[in-house]
Sequence to fold (380 residues):
Amino acid sequence: MKIAIIAGTFFPLSGGVQVEIHNMANKLVQKGHSVDVYVYKNVDLKNNLYKIVPINYIFLSLLYILKRFLNFKLEKIFNIFDFRFIKLNYEIYHFHFLNFKSLILIEFLNYYKKKILVTFHGADIQIKKEINYGFRINKEFNFYLNKLLKNISGIQCISSNIYKDLIKLGINKNIIYKIPNSIYLNKKNYKKNDNNHFHLITVGRFAKKKKGFDLIPKIAKKLIEKKIKFKWEIIGKNSQKIYEDKFLLENKDKIISIENIENKKEFFFPASKLLKHYYKANLYINLARIESFGLTYIECLSCNTPILSFYSKGIDEILENKKNGLFAKNIDDLVNKIYYLNSNRRYLKKISNNCRKTIYKYNIDKNYLKLINFYKKFLN
Fold:
């Protein structure tokens, strides 16, 4: 197949969307397909088998101004000017993560009567008003999205939570296909760190409220009060901002910030260097208030590192209580469970040994087959 993937966000920003696009695009090429990934700004990668195609950002920005602020009918412009943001000879047009400019490109392809496939990834469909999260809080985006939804041919749904959001938007369930995010199951194995410290890990970009990083000082204080010998690695873009909190700065020997670990050579994420951190950790601490899926969850589980988390959207579909991790009711309960697991390593080892078994269903090879079957239903 000749496939165009239109990325609403891409590297050098690094997150679940970018990793999923990159991994699956590389897998598609390995299987003999031709894949072009359209991006807003050119990026220099060394580990991509697919072709990166930058979109004419100046012209797209002009249309953005006309549509966003003047609500101009873009069809009039398409009638006059031949922009050709995206080539018109692909069999598949697949959008990942919609922003306002993505909607313009969907309208552009609709003008040429192309079938459109979409994967929503979180902020483009989910709303959590308490932390001002979600593009749909913006009235212009929400109105434009709802207008174009009827012109979308098929939707890849990565989680049950997003499925519920799609149904609330009035999407016909017959065009929704459940295909979760994927993981490349690396065969490398590293021994768990077995020294005197209890090793905790949290992976994610610094988004204070959304990722729950505002809770780290409260939890860390209680762990120290309980005299638990621990090291807690916070890995992700701008993670050093946790040291804006005076207490965390004073205890940076225990709360360790590590900048995002890049993958410049390996074809698939997560990078081997990041896997080593997952493997040595005794426990993954999830504090995120909302996720569409949470790629880091299945990454850590693939390394037999169980998860401790509050109950929230995203993690509720992956964490199986007392099988591959534990749910906590509140901060005190979370701290008590860390204390318990540190003191009961035999029980911790028991649930650790279950972790990798629970995520085989997300194997990229299985999801590749599901995606191809999805594509075959919507060939242009």
Notes: Residues 16-30 form the longest helix (15 residues).
